[in-house]
Amino acid sequence: MKKTVSTFQNAKQSGEKLTMLTAYDYSTAKLIDEAGIDSILVGDSLGNVILGYEDTISVTMEDMIHHGAAVARGAKDALVVVDMPFMSYQTSVYDAVVNAGRLMKEGRAGAVKLEGGASVCPQIKAITDAGIPVVAHLGLTPQSINAFGGYKVQGKSEAAAKQLIEDALAVQEAGAFAVVLECVPSKLAAMITEKLDIPTIGIGAGNACDGQVLVYQDMLGMFTDYVPKFVKQFADVGNVMKEAFAAYKKEVADGTFPAEEHGYKIDDDVIEKLY
Ligand code: KIV
Description:
43% of the residues lie in helices and 14% in strands. By secondary structure, it is α/β, with parallel strands linked by helices.
Protein backbone atom coordinates (compact mmCIF):
# COMPACT_ATOMS: atom_id res chain seq x y z
CA MET A 1 0.00 0.00 0.00
CA LYS A 2 1.25 3.49 -0.89
CA LYS A 3 2.79 5.23 2.14
CA THR A 4 1.93 8.87 2.63
CA VAL A 5 2.11 11.63 5.20
CA SER A 6 -0.98 10.00 6.76
CA THR A 7 1.04 6.80 7.33
CA PHE A 8 3.38 8.88 9.49
CA GLN A 9 0.51 10.51 11.41
CA ASN A 10 -1.24 7.17 11.97
CA ALA A 11 2.00 5.56 13.17
CA LYS A 12 2.47 8.32 15.75
CA GLN A 13 -1.03 7.68 17.07
CA SER A 14 -0.86 3.87 17.03
CA GLY A 15 2.71 3.59 18.30
CA GLU A 16 3.75 1.52 15.28
CA LYS A 17 7.43 2.17 14.52
CA LEU A 18 8.31 3.87 11.23
CA THR A 19 11.22 2.70 9.08
CA MET A 20 13.24 4.86 6.71
CA LEU A 21 16.41 4.07 4.75
CA THR A 22 18.37 6.16 2.32
CA ALA A 23 18.68 5.28 -1.37
CA TYR A 24 20.12 7.13 -4.33
CA ASP A 25 19.32 4.90 -7.32
CA TYR A 26 16.50 2.89 -8.93
CA SER A 27 17.67 -0.67 -8.14
CA THR A 28 18.34 -0.03 -4.46
CA ALA A 29 15.07 1.88 -4.08
CA LYS A 30 13.21 -1.07 -5.58
CA LEU A 31 14.81 -3.53 -3.12
CA ILE A 32 14.09 -1.28 -0.14
CA ASP A 33 10.52 -0.74 -1.32
CA GLU A 34 9.99 -4.49 -1.79
CA ALA A 35 11.26 -5.06 1.77
CA GLY A 36 8.34 -2.96 3.00
CA ILE A 37 10.31 0.01 4.37
CA ASP A 38 7.90 2.93 4.92
CA SER A 39 10.00 5.72 3.50
CA ILE A 40 13.09 6.22 1.34
CA LEU A 41 15.25 9.25 2.01
CA VAL A 42 17.27 10.55 -0.91
CA GLY A 43 19.70 12.10 1.53
CA ASP A 44 22.30 14.68 0.67
CA SER A 45 24.55 12.04 2.29
CA LEU A 46 24.88 11.07 -1.38
CA GLY A 47 27.67 13.65 -1.32
CA ASN A 48 29.61 11.27 0.95
CA VAL A 49 28.57 7.78 -0.05
CA ILE A 50 27.94 8.24 -3.79
CA LEU A 51 30.08 11.18 -4.87
CA GLY A 52 32.97 10.73 -2.42
CA TYR A 53 32.96 14.26 -0.98
CA GLU A 54 34.15 14.83 2.58
CA ASP A 55 30.85 16.47 3.52
CA THR A 56 27.44 17.37 2.10
CA ILE A 57 28.23 21.02 1.35
CA SER A 58 28.94 20.64 -2.39
CA VAL A 59 25.77 18.70 -3.21
CA THR A 60 23.64 20.56 -5.77
CA MET A 61 19.96 20.80 -6.66
CA GLU A 62 20.78 18.98 -9.90
CA ASP A 63 22.33 16.08 -7.92
CA MET A 64 19.22 15.80 -5.75
CA ILE A 65 16.81 15.98 -8.70
CA HIS A 66 18.79 13.40 -10.68
CA HIS A 67 18.93 10.87 -7.82
CA GLY A 68 15.44 11.71 -6.50
CA ALA A 69 13.83 10.89 -9.85
CA ALA A 70 15.76 7.60 -10.08
CA VAL A 71 14.63 6.56 -6.61
CA ALA A 72 11.03 7.61 -7.28
CA ARG A 73 10.96 5.29 -10.32
CA GLY A 74 11.92 2.36 -8.06
CA ALA A 75 9.70 3.17 -5.07
CA LYS A 76 6.18 1.86 -5.64
CA ASP A 77 4.90 2.14 -2.05
CA ALA A 78 7.53 3.90 0.05
CA LEU A 79 7.20 7.64 0.62
CA VAL A 80 10.14 9.30 -1.12
CA VAL A 81 11.65 12.19 0.86
CA VAL A 82 14.31 14.25 -0.93
CA ASP A 83 16.84 16.41 0.93
CA MET A 84 17.09 20.11 0.13
CA PRO A 85 20.82 20.68 -0.42
CA PHE A 86 22.96 23.33 1.26
CA MET A 87 21.99 26.89 0.22
CA SER A 88 18.83 25.81 -1.60
CA TYR A 89 16.61 27.10 1.25
CA GLN A 90 18.78 29.05 3.72
CA THR A 91 19.02 32.07 1.39
CA SER A 92 15.32 33.07 1.36
CA VAL A 93 11.77 31.83 1.72
CA TYR A 94 11.33 32.40 -2.02
CA ASP A 95 14.34 30.22 -2.90
CA ALA A 96 13.09 27.55 -0.51
CA VAL A 97 9.65 27.32 -2.15
CA VAL A 98 11.06 27.39 -5.71
CA ASN A 99 13.63 24.67 -4.92
CA ALA A 100 11.21 22.48 -2.95
CA GLY A 101 8.89 22.78 -5.95
CA ARG A 102 11.68 21.62 -8.29
CA LEU A 103 12.42 18.62 -6.07
CA MET A 104 8.76 17.66 -6.27
CA LYS A 105 8.19 18.43 -9.99
CA GLU A 106 11.51 17.26 -11.42
CA GLY A 107 12.81 15.00 -8.65
CA ARG A 108 9.37 13.39 -8.02
CA ALA A 109 9.73 13.86 -4.24
CA GLY A 110 6.71 13.01 -2.11
CA ALA A 111 8.17 15.28 0.57
CA VAL A 112 11.30 17.32 1.18
CA LYS A 113 13.63 17.46 4.18
CA LEU A 114 15.58 20.45 5.37
CA GLU A 115 17.92 21.10 8.28
CA GLY A 116 17.42 23.59 11.09
CA GLY A 117 15.00 24.79 13.75
CA ALA A 118 13.38 28.15 14.47
CA SER A 119 15.59 29.94 11.92
CA VAL A 120 14.09 27.97 9.00
CA CYS A 121 10.49 27.94 10.24
CA PRO A 122 9.40 30.63 7.72
CA GLN A 123 10.70 28.34 4.96
CA ILE A 124 8.95 25.27 6.44
CA LYS A 125 5.66 27.19 6.65
CA ALA A 126 5.89 28.56 3.10
CA ILE A 127 6.83 25.18 1.57
CA THR A 128 4.03 23.45 3.49
CA ASP A 129 1.58 26.19 2.43
CA ALA A 130 2.58 25.45 -1.18
CA GLY A 131 1.35 21.87 -0.70
CA ILE A 132 4.76 20.24 -0.28
CA PRO A 133 5.13 18.09 2.86
CA VAL A 134 8.23 18.88 4.92
CA VAL A 135 10.39 16.73 7.20
CA ALA A 136 12.55 18.81 9.56
CA HIS A 137 16.03 17.73 10.70
CA LEU A 138 17.47 18.70 14.10
CA GLY A 139 20.46 17.80 16.28
CA LEU A 140 23.56 17.13 14.25
CA THR A 141 22.72 18.81 10.97
CA PRO A 142 25.61 17.97 8.62
CA GLN A 143 25.16 21.07 6.42
CA SER A 144 26.26 23.12 9.47
CA ILE A 145 29.37 21.02 10.02
CA ASN A 146 31.65 24.04 9.72
CA ALA A 147 29.65 25.91 12.36
CA PHE A 148 29.62 22.87 14.71
CA GLY A 149 33.36 22.28 14.25
CA GLY A 150 32.91 18.53 13.67
CA TYR A 151 30.46 15.65 13.88
CA LYS A 152 29.45 15.87 17.56
CA VAL A 153 26.48 14.77 19.66
CA GLN A 154 24.10 17.72 20.08
CA GLY A 155 21.95 18.91 23.00
CA LYS A 156 24.13 17.72 25.86
CA SER A 157 24.11 20.91 27.97
CA GLU A 158 20.96 22.26 29.63
CA ALA A 159 20.85 25.26 27.29
CA ALA A 160 21.43 23.16 24.17
CA ALA A 161 18.82 20.60 25.25
CA LYS A 162 16.26 23.38 25.88
CA GLN A 163 17.06 24.86 22.47
CA LEU A 164 16.50 21.48 20.80
CA ILE A 165 13.11 21.06 22.51
CA GLU A 166 12.10 24.60 21.45
CA ASP A 167 13.26 23.96 17.88
CA ALA A 168 11.31 20.70 17.72
CA LEU A 169 8.13 22.44 18.88
CA ALA A 170 8.79 25.31 16.43
CA VAL A 171 9.20 23.09 13.35
CA GLN A 172 6.03 21.22 14.30
CA GLU A 173 4.18 24.53 14.66
CA ALA A 174 5.54 25.64 11.26
CA GLY A 175 3.98 22.59 9.60
CA ALA A 176 6.61 19.84 9.44
CA PHE A 177 4.95 16.41 9.44
CA ALA A 178 7.97 14.62 10.95
CA VAL A 179 11.36 15.47 12.36
CA VAL A 180 14.66 13.65 12.06
CA LEU A 181 16.73 13.75 15.26
CA GLU A 182 20.40 13.04 14.54
CA CYS A 183 23.01 12.38 17.24
CA VAL A 184 20.85 13.45 20.15
CA PRO A 185 21.16 11.79 23.59
CA SER A 186 18.57 8.99 23.87
CA LYS A 187 16.81 10.44 26.95
CA LEU A 188 16.47 13.87 25.34
CA ALA A 189 15.14 12.32 22.11
CA ALA A 190 12.61 10.36 24.20
CA MET A 191 11.47 13.59 25.87
CA ILE A 192 11.11 15.37 22.50
CA THR A 193 9.21 12.37 21.10
CA GLU A 194 6.78 12.55 24.00
CA LYS A 195 6.25 16.31 23.60
CA LEU A 196 5.54 16.22 19.85
CA ASP A 197 2.37 15.30 17.99
CA ILE A 198 4.42 14.57 14.85
CA PRO A 199 6.72 11.51 14.64
CA THR A 200 10.42 11.69 15.42
CA ILE A 201 12.75 9.66 13.20
CA GLY A 202 15.99 8.93 15.01
CA ILE A 203 19.52 8.33 13.78
CA GLY A 204 21.81 8.05 16.78
CA ALA A 205 18.93 9.18 18.98
CA GLY A 206 17.94 5.99 20.82
CA ASN A 207 15.00 3.68 20.42
CA ALA A 208 12.26 5.82 21.96
CA CYS A 209 11.90 7.73 18.68
CA ASP A 210 8.80 6.99 16.61
CA GLY A 211 10.96 5.63 13.79
CA GLN A 212 14.53 5.09 12.66
CA VAL A 213 16.59 6.01 9.62
CA LEU A 214 20.00 4.75 8.47
CA VAL A 215 22.19 5.31 5.44
CA TYR A 216 21.92 2.01 3.56
CA GLN A 217 25.63 1.71 2.77
CA ASP A 218 26.33 2.01 6.52
CA MET A 219 23.89 -0.72 7.56
CA LEU A 220 25.14 -3.02 4.79
CA GLY A 221 28.83 -2.50 5.53
CA MET A 222 29.43 -0.92 2.12
CA PHE A 223 30.87 2.40 3.32
CA THR A 224 33.70 2.16 5.81
CA ASP A 225 35.55 5.49 5.41
CA TYR A 226 34.10 6.26 8.86
CA VAL A 227 31.46 4.35 10.80
CA PRO A 228 29.48 6.33 13.38
CA LYS A 229 28.75 4.72 16.78
CA PHE A 230 25.02 4.63 16.02
CA VAL A 231 25.39 2.36 12.98
CA LYS A 232 24.49 -1.31 13.26
CA GLN A 233 25.75 -3.42 10.38
CA PHE A 234 22.85 -5.71 9.43
CA ALA A 235 24.78 -7.53 6.69
CA ASP A 236 28.35 -7.65 5.39
CA VAL A 237 27.44 -6.73 1.81
CA GLY A 238 30.67 -4.77 1.34
CA ASN A 239 32.76 -7.94 1.75
CA VAL A 240 30.30 -10.05 -0.28
CA MET A 241 30.75 -7.52 -3.12
CA LYS A 242 34.54 -7.53 -2.83
CA GLU A 243 34.59 -11.34 -2.90
CA ALA A 244 32.33 -11.39 -5.97
CA PHE A 245 34.52 -8.81 -7.77
CA ALA A 246 37.64 -10.88 -6.99
CA ALA A 247 35.94 -14.13 -8.15
CA TYR A 248 34.97 -12.39 -11.43
CA LYS A 249 38.57 -11.21 -11.94
CA LYS A 250 39.88 -14.73 -11.32
CA GLU A 251 37.38 -16.42 -13.69
CA VAL A 252 38.03 -13.93 -16.47
CA ALA A 253 41.76 -14.40 -15.99
CA ASP A 254 41.61 -18.22 -16.01
CA GLY A 255 39.06 -18.35 -18.84
CA THR A 256 36.20 -20.01 -16.92
CA PHE A 257 33.95 -16.97 -17.42
CA PRO A 258 32.09 -16.57 -19.68
CA ALA A 259 31.11 -20.26 -19.97
CA GLU A 260 29.24 -21.68 -22.96
CA GLU A 261 25.82 -20.97 -21.40
CA HIS A 262 26.60 -17.24 -21.24
CA GLY A 263 27.12 -17.00 -25.02
CA TYR A 264 24.82 -16.80 -28.10
CA LYS A 265 24.56 -19.45 -30.80
CA ILE A 266 24.89 -19.13 -34.57
CA ASP A 267 24.36 -21.89 -37.18
CA ASP A 268 27.64 -23.63 -38.11
CA ASP A 269 26.90 -23.30 -41.85
CA VAL A 270 26.78 -19.50 -41.47
CA ILE A 271 30.19 -19.55 -39.84
CA GLU A 272 31.58 -21.91 -42.51
CA LYS A 273 30.56 -19.50 -45.27
CA LEU A 274 32.63 -16.79 -43.61
CA TYR A 275 35.92 -18.73 -44.07
O1 KIV B 1 21.44 12.86 4.24
C1 KIV B 1 21.05 11.92 4.93
O2 KIV B 1 21.24 10.73 4.62
C2 KIV B 1 20.36 12.25 6.17
C3 KIV B 1 20.18 11.14 7.16
C4 KIV B 1 21.46 10.83 7.82
C5 KIV B 1 19.11 11.45 8.15
O3 KIV B 1 20.00 13.35 6.38
